[in-house]
Amino acid sequence: MNTIYLKDILQQGDDAIAAASTFLGLKMAQLDCSDVETISGEQLSLLFSKIPPSWEFEELGKVLIAESMSETLGIAFFEFVNNRGSSQPLVAQTNKISYGTQTPKKAVQDVTPISIYFTSPSIPLSTAPSPLNPIKVLDKVIAEYRDYLLTEFRAKDPQLKAALEKAIDQPLFLAQEPFYQAHRPFKSGEKWQNLSIDAKLARVMQQRSGSEFAYLHQSQAIDHLLGQNASPLVVTTGTGSGKTETFLLPVIQNAIADAAQFRRQSGLTAILVYPMNALANDQFLRIQNYLKESGWEGAISVAKYDRGTKLKERQALRQNPPHILLTNYMMLEYLLVRPADREDIFANHRCRFLVLDEVHTYRGTLGSNIALLVRRLQTHLKDAKQDWCSQVPPELQRKRYPEFLPVATSATIKSVAEGEHSPQERIRLRDEAVQEFFSKISGVNKSSIRVIGEELAELQTPPQAVSPSIPYILWDLNRWLIRSPLSISQIVKKVKQEIPERSH
Fold first, then answer.
1. 5-64: per-residue pLDDT in tens?
2. The Helicase ATP-binding domain covers which part of the protein (predicted)?
3. pTM of the model
């Protein structure tokens, strides 16, 4: 959920306050009241103008961040809401509030603080908003837009005003129809517990995913990267497919095995490169949560190297390189040109994986720069200082000096040559295009690159669909929306084409 800052919208004026009210009323944002002590009655009225009057304090607590309110501001909010429509009056004291029309002085220390009215033990502030109804949201946005236009372009002449209202009320004048598209579920793969990952980590994934099965592309990628015949890999699947886990879990499992084999010796086992810090920050927290929930938090070290990394933190990284390092391509460039960081952070590495997330963004000149960066990194890893346990028995040779594997994730990729080919031929053409692209980025032989795409489950029309209460046409509708987005009028037209007219 987005965050709106009260301080900012008060400075921007009434229009910004009214716009914020719309977002709050739709539960599309939360209001942070930090650094605001006072607010006028007119501003409060605007702020609450689009928030349903029926909302009680618990409901308001979902969009108002109570912890950010000062006591003075909290009282102002409380009194406004109380006077707005509460059936039982509440009295606000200087520091506390309580029910009733009067508060005895001796009871002041026992009454409830302001913030409690905007929270509830059963409905925490972090609760996700209820799903939006797209049709209702569109209707509300159109109504708001209509009101704005009629207010902004006021016509004194009655005929002109009527003509304007008539034009605005024409269907599809202010907004196009919403388009709908269905997405088939991804095919299921192996059970989490049957994958080549730690049993505790598998339980975490089962709990987080809500299923005992991984998606097929997840289980294929994990088994490939952790198998005996591992090779460079590109996972190209759509949004919401869990492609992050296709490399995070092998990276974590490899670090677990390294920590167990070498008694938690510091040293890089994987480098994760992101196009944006926001992605790195998100996945840094995700890795930490996975390690904490699986009980491996103390054994595996994870760190970020970005522009926010302070000198002391860089010194700590030089002294104890982490098992897993997250960075972006710009900072990886800096890391390779800073002598102290370069020599010490890569020292005694057992780097198995280089992950390039969202690799489809590396095109043109940027792609060329990334390709050169990857080659410089590979060269430095080969020449990095190895003064710890440099002589190992043959059975540990592959673990101490593992083969370096570039891995990439990408949004769904299609070959421009696909055309009207068969599904198998389209997959072959896609794989060739991806292999050609990633070979240029990573420098590895394209024949060694495995490409894993998404596989979608087929929709099966259940037998009960013949029942009048569950029309068969709804299952056909799913199939239509999978092929391409359709507007409501297009759906109606399609249904009319499929269902013959009844003769009277």
1. 898 889 888 888 988 888 888 888 889 888 888 888 889 889 999 898 888 777 788 888
2. 224-431
3. 0.64
User: Count of residues for the chain?
Assistant: 504
Distance of CA 267 to the CA centre of its chain: 30
Number of helices followed by number of strands (H, E) in the chain: 19, 15
Amino acid code (one letter) for 329: Y
d(CA 288, CA 294): 10
Average pLDDT over residues 178-190: 85
DSSP string, 296-333: -TTTS-EEEESTT--HHHHHHHHHS--SEEEEEHHHHH
Cα 247 to Cα 112, 230, 353, 471: the distances in Å are 49, 13, 9, 42
Q: Under 8 Å CB-to-CB from 442, ≥6 apart: which residues?
A: 232, 354, 356, 371, 374, 406, 408, 449
Q: What CA–CA distance (Å, rounded) separates 369 from 335?
A: 15
* CA gap 33, 10 in Å, rounded: 11
Q: What is the DSSP letter of 189?
A: E
pLDDT at 118: 53
* Residue 474 pLDDT > 80: no
Indicate the Cα dihedral angle 309, 315, 321, 322, nearest 10°: -40
Residue 234 phi, psi dihedral angles, 5° rounding: -125, 125
Is domain 230-448 annotated with CATH 3.40.50.300?
A: yes
Q: Hey, where are the domains in the chain?
A: 2-118, 134-175, 230-448, 463-498
- Retrieve residue 44's tokens: 């409060």
Task: Tell me the three state secondary structure of residue 235.
Answer: strand
